[in-house]
Amino acid sequence: DADVTQTPRNRITKTGKRIMLECSQTKGHDRMYWYRQDPGLGLRLIYYSFDVKDINKGEISDGYSVSRQAQAKFSLSLESAIPNQTALYFCATSASVAGGSDTQYFGPGTRLTVL
Amino acid sequence: QKEVEQDPGPLSVPEGAIVSLNCTYSNSAFQYFMWYRQYSRKGPELLMYTYSSGNKEDGRFTAQVDKSSKYISLFIRDSQPSDSATYLCAMSANAGGTSYGKLTFGQGTILTVHP
């Protein structure tokens, strides 16, 4: 079974609709992240959460919100989707390591298309 | 100027070739350097991880970090068609920095190894 799962895997929606992307992990990690990937731009951080009560904006948080329902669950919402939010969305997790770097483990991605 | 620059390619090589993938960066606080491999329609997976300057070898893969030049490389020896993927460099600052735990990614290089 996959350690990091994302649902749905693909979604097509219309401008103005509310969309929620969900992420669950069984790795026992405390840190979770949401990224979007666009051609030529690489991975850009939307939001990150270091524990259930700690949520932080990333470099491109406008138009997005998140909820950390439990240590293992982190959801991303688009309150009113717009076409330029069409992208591949990835959830990632990592374990806090004192004095070390956070190696991140990624889910399979959600391909979102906003018409 | 982006913090991390990576030539997006695409790069096409014959099977058996030595492949060199590179990233440059501007943030001298980066201490941890990673290479992720991403197959089509999959999430990135960690391939190599190095701390500070130096070399690290794992099978056909060698990662090099030159902090004085702010330059990192990934070498693939005896490349195989199964190495065809997008390769992303990523880096993060040392523990205690304000960016601790957050990875900054390059744009990714698309590699095709043809038989």
Summarize the structure.
The complex is a heterodimer of chains A (about 120) and B (about 120). Chain A has strands at about 5, 10-15, 20-25, 30-40, 40-50, 55, 65-70, 75-80, 85-95, 105, 110-115.
N to C succession of SSEs of chain B = EEEEEEEEEEE
Question: Low-confidence stretches of chain B at least 5 residues in length (pLDDT < 50)?
Answer: 95-99
Query: Termini distance of chain B?
Result: 37 Å
Overall spatial form of chain A: globular
What is the number of strand segments of chain B?
Answer: 11
Describe the fold and architecture:
The complex is a heterodimer of chains A (about 120) and B (about 120). With about 120 residues, chain A is mainly beta. Chain A has no helices and eleven strands. Chain A has strands spanning about 5, 10-15, 20-25, 30-40, 40-50, 55, 65-70, 75-80, 85-95, 105, 110-115. In chain A, strands 2, 4, 5, 6, 9, 10 and 11 form a seven-stranded mixed beta sheet that branches. A four-stranded antiparallel beta sheet of chain A has the order 1-3-8-7, with no helix packed on it. Chain B is about 0% helix and about 55% strand. By secondary structure, chain B is an all-beta fold. Chain B has strands at about 5, 10-15, 20-25, 30-40, 45-50, 55-60, 60-65, 70-75, 85-95, 105, 110-115. In chain B, strands 2, 4, 5, 9, 10 and 11 form a six-stranded mixed beta sheet that branches. Chain B is built from no helices and eleven strands. The interface of A and B includes residues 4 and 90 of A.
